[in-house]
Hints:
This protein is α+β, with helices and mostly antiparallel strands. It is 49% helix and 17% strand. Keywords: Heme, Iron, Metal-binding, Monooxygenase, Oxidoreductase.
Amino acid sequence: MSARALAPLSLFYVRDVRPAIVARRRERDEDVISHLIDQDYTDPEILIECVTYGAAGMVTTREYICMVAWHLLEDAELRRRYLTAEQTERHDILHEILRLEPVVGHLYRRATSDITLQDGGTVHHIPAGAVMDLSVRAANADPDVVGEDPLCVRPDRAMSKGVRPEAMSFGDGNHRCPGNSLAIHETDILLTRLLALEPVLESPPRLGWLDLIAGYELREVRLRRAA
């Protein structure tokens, strides 16, 4: 690692991570560092996990904010509804856009034991050790789960029992995104302030894809103040 990269990492450790480790060794809390201490992680290993959590949350939330802004800037009625709504309804809109536009389109998991799944009249057998490709984008657009017009933004859609408003976009189970609430709140705070300035989208952003996770990248998003 170069000195240029090592300096900010060291500063992050000294100012943020190490004091948190000391505090959590003294008194546990419901957070990642407490969990890692209980798993006997070393300080360098905890630092790596903190960087991973921070980078993953930053990158995915950044792309999601750009995608939501794109939707709202191109849909005047949805933008008006978002800006005049209370927080609960605004979050409904954000969750619905996330359902339609998951930042990570695929999740990969390895079966720890033999699994048998039934889809209608078809039975699938997955052997232990097999890698499963979970298509989040396809699952989020299943009309049997999310209702009619699955490819349309409908914040008031009635989801099937047990299905969250964003469907599988934050994952599920033990691997469910721990920062899901923070991502929604961050997006809401930024966009309510941004859209209040009445920005105009000069041109559609350049859309790219990360093949490994079928995730999108939005670049060259250019806004200007309305005249």
